[in-house]
Write a structure and sequence with these properties.
Elements (H helix, E strand, L loop, with lengths): L4 E4 L4 H17 L3 E7 L4 H22 L5 E7 L2 H10 L3 E5 L14 H8 L4 E4 L13 E5 L8 H14 L3 E7 L9 H10 L2 H19 L5 E7 L2 H9 L2 E7 L3 E3 L2 E3 L2 H9 L4 E4 L3
Parallel strand pairs: 1-2, 1-4, 2-3, 4-5, 6-7, 6-9, 7-8, 9-12
Antiparallel strand pairs: 5-12, 10-11
């Protein structure tokens, strides 16, 4: 079954930018595009006509820009969180509009957007209102974070390499590290560090090992390896200004106040100036 790229539409500038980002990606990948709008059932009578008009206008604009792109629309008369999570499960990627330095807007009010990102089993891409096709120009990198061992960031690396292959882009893989507390050293870890020649060479070696299978699978994708001491979120953001997309893995967990997203993904999705893909673990 061919999965569509699905995008949430609410008429805001952010969601319309998300529509056009999703359309360009669907054209590149040869996938259909699905436009959806969700709202609370209690608002159905008053809201449905406006929502339908919004979807029709977006679909009409896409038909003019991308006449050969298959586009479908649907009104989701149900709670936005489970509706969008369900839509994501059947999609290649879910795309949502996002406001920088704040919460996701539109029908994703308050914590709803974060719940969707935290619960989705498929990648979710967040797009700013000022996003333009020009940001995908040659020379602008796809930046992706890597941490831990070879398998820990596999899903994010796969998304980054697949996207770069479609766009002819370079992948910049970022691994941030910090000085460990003294009590965390063990004889085994000390031996590994000694064999690597110190902390920084050890981190570079770990990054190279994590990248090896993806470079073998995508030999034509140029790769830049970047290791830097510091906060992972800050290191990723430092490269976001020259990026066309930032990809982060998601480490979601539940707490007393509901689903939460890992701190690195949270920082990047709220502050990166370019689109951000949040990828769940495989």
């Amino acid at each position: 079954m061919t999965r569509p790229i699905t995008v949430g539409v609410d008429g805001s500038a952010e969601s319309l930018a998300a529509v056009h980002w999703a359309a360009r990606e669907a054209v590149r990948r040869g996938l259909p595009l699905r436009l959806v709008h969700a709202w609370e059932t209690a608002d159905a009578g008053e809201h449905a006509p406006k929502a339908l008009d919004t979807l029709r206008e977006a679909a009409h604009e896409l038909a003019e820009r991308h006449p050969h792109l298959p586009v479908s629309t649907d009104l989701l008369d149900a709670d936005p969180v489970p509706s969008l999570v369900a839509e994501a499960a059947d999609a290649e990627t879910l795309v949502l509009g996002s406001r920088g330095h704040g919460a996701i807007v539109g029908f994703l009010l308050g914590s709803v957007g974060q719940q969707v990102v935290a619960e989705s089993i498929r990648p979710v891409v967040l797009v700013r209102a000022d996003d333009r096709a020009e940001t995908e120009a040659a020379g602008r990198e796809i930046v992706v974070g890597q941490h831990g061992g070879p398998d820990d960031s596999g899903a994010a690396l796969r998304f980054a390499f697949e996207t770069a292959a479609e766009r002819g882009a370079t992948v910049r893989v970022v691994r941030a590290w910090s000085l460990p507390a003294l009590y965390s050293f063990s004889p085994g870890s000390m031996k590994l560090l000694d064999e690597a020649g110190g902390l920084e060479p050890y981190e570079k070696k770990a990054l190279a090992e994590a990248l090896e299978p993806w470079q073998e699978r995508f030999p034509d994708v140029p790769v830049t390896q970047h290791t830097e001491i510091g906060s992972a979120g800050e290191v990723l953001l430092s490269g976001a200004g020259r990026a066309q997309l930032v990809v982060v893995g998601r480490r979601a967990h539940r707490s007393a106040v509901g689903p939460r997203i890992g701190s690195v993904a949270h920082v990047v999705m709220h502050h990166a100036p370019c689109p951000v893909a949040v990828v769940p673990p495989a």
